[in-house]
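User: For a benchmark we're assembling, each entry needs the component sequences followed by a predicted structure for the full assembly. Here are entry 17's components. Please fill in the structure.
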Amino acid sequence: MDDAVAVVLFVAVTTYAVFGGADFGAGFWDLVAGGAARGAGPRALVDHAIGPVWEANHVWLIFALVVLWTAFPEAFASITLTAFVPLMLVALGIVLRGASFAFRKSLFRTSQRRAFGAIFAFSSVLVPYGMGAVAGAIASGRVPAGGEAGDPWSSWINPTSVVGGVLAVTVGAYLAAVYLISDARRLADDAMVDYFRRRAIAAAIIAGPVALLGIVVLRSDARYLFDGLASRALPLVLLSSLCGIGSLVLLLRRSPRGARLLAMGAVASIIWAWGVAQWPYILPTSLKVAAAAAPQATLITVLVVFGVATVVILPSLGLLYFLDQRSLLPAEGLDALPPSRGSASLP
Amino acid sequence: MTALPLPPGGSMLAVDPVPWARGQMAFTLASHIILVPLGVSWACMTLVANWRAIRRGDDDALLLAQRWSKYMAVTFAVGAVTGTVLTFEFGLLWPRFMGTWGAAFGIPFSVEGLFFFLEAIFIAIYIYGWKRLRPWPHFWTGVPIVVAGIGGTLSVVAANAWMNEPAGFTLNKAGEVVDVDPLKVIFNDAWPYEASHMLVAAYLVGGFMIASVYAVAMLRGRRGHYHRLGFLIPFTIAAIATPVQMVVGDTLARWVYANEPTKFAAIELVPESDSDVPETLLGRLDSEGQVSGGIAIPGLASWLSDPSTGTSTVIQGLDSFPADERPTTAEVNTVHLAWDVMVGLGTLLFLLSVWYGLTWIVRRDMPRSKLFLRAASGAGVAAVLAMEAGWTVTEVGRQPWIVRGHMRVEDAATTNGGVWVMFIAVVAIYLALATTVVLVLRTMSRRFRQQDGLVDTDSPYGPREVSAERAQEAEHISG
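Assistant: Structure for entry 17:
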């Protein structure tokens, strides 16, 4: 039972990484898109691409947090006590990013758009870094059991956390660039297809080695995790590498649709590798999943809720993505009344 | 629980976290709750306008619905992220509360997660779907937003009601939750009263908030069909919700009388158990713990608590509880003042609703007088204040408990000495956020007026033929 809920938790984390992570990655490309004139094209595409979906993608984070505190309350207390500083930065960064994105779309003066765009882009990098650092704190065993606080600074300023943070930012950027190629193709914007194809290739070339280098860092800094990755999680690590290389090949051969699926696979399998590697611990190596789990009835409730989610939420999400991919969700509202209906019923 | 090791040279940074954690939770909740009514009820009002637009071919209603949905995009985004902050704060500020009670307290939130998902998905489809979806399918994509708003409210309030009336768990000797009955957690005894009170409040406050904007526009002379609709739809919903809220609130108060006697003693300012307790308007407890000042209406508090026994109804006073298991004098005064503010403003809003309803019954039209519009333009702020006051009553009235009878607030808080830094950052960011939200909404509104050819904010509502042409011109330019 507790295993099943841990799987649900990891499904939520993975989905958030694959979809929400890309929304943050889009913010990264926004950040490095250059001045107002040069960056107008990519920024417009980023706005267009993440506008309708980022809030729905964001809910996976809420869902993961709720599952964590409901099903594994002791682990949640330990994590929030230990990683107070990075989680605070993440929370504030999420506020700044979401709000400034919404504001930027609603404003029309270049100076205002630039100011909020800068906040949006900066926080889009801060938040995944912070989340990656917290993941590093957990994975490297720096969060103690028992609802106790670990070290407030070295728990998230350490080699594993740096790897986690950098990896989260680069992987998000990589996913975003790959997705944005498809979005640009849908809009028949060849210049942007090429723009993001080049960036996706660059991001893939950086993210792959960062991930492999990270595993080397873990060898000295997070031994339990390293041993897991080198043994029971090894197939997933290899799968992730193969997916990553495959997506790079497809990018080079200009086949973005396949590249998108393989990119998702690469990210999902590395996250699962993390989960499998630290099994059976939720906080390696002090708290096991089974020991951290809430009473049976609570776990059943979480599973039932997840079951309802797969029946109700997944089709709804599917509808959202379907309409979005079919370009049926082009803009907020209408610019004005359709001319044909102009003043038909006005007094 | 040991105190945190401090960063080198950082002992100056460590401050008792409890008051800061309290202050931050109060501040962020008080901010978020202003957006809640908009998130819950605005979609419903938008759908009313949308329905009218399709059924009657009313282009003004269409324009109104799609503009409202654009505003909603901003307020929903800000509501989503300020709600996320609350999610983080449960852990960052109250880790020991979550560690101990998460297995029970988390259950309503896992249900709420479903509704939040539905809301986020369909609000995106609805807001972005205007151009390319067909009218009726597009309308129907808005309906799940309304359902999710209602469901989300009911589940979040279930969590709060559980803190007031904890149920559905078994503790072992060490005080750990070892068994949970999820249904008893969600459907705790306080839930039906609190949840219905907040749900009606969401429609009441959201309605008055939106209507007050159009009341101001009408006072400035913009009295065309568009602005009338913008006023009538939300105001009618609010005016229906207000009398309902009087009944719901009264029922809830009587439930509090029977089940949360310390909170009730604070509400009614009752230092000693007694019958024939007067209803004290304003007034406060002095340092001796006696009622001073205010206007006392003899016997009314007793009579309202249980009309069947009338003024002989005994109300338990604060003295029937140990001093460390009831609110402090300062907290009692806060609760009582907040109660007076809520009931006072609620009564004024009720009178305003009656005025509107009677005029409508007699004349089939809204009141035309400037006085009515002036009152209506203040109703939004009044309704928000009443809601904040009501929330203050339920939260401060529960003190010193976070889980009533089981865990005190100071035992729930983080041990992290740096909470004050986060508090200051949060206040700064939220103030900037609030200012920007208002500015952005005003910028949008000004731009919409420019599209209508109403550039000068104080000019009377111009001839519509001209403005419609201008709107078309604007569209040709922008499109």
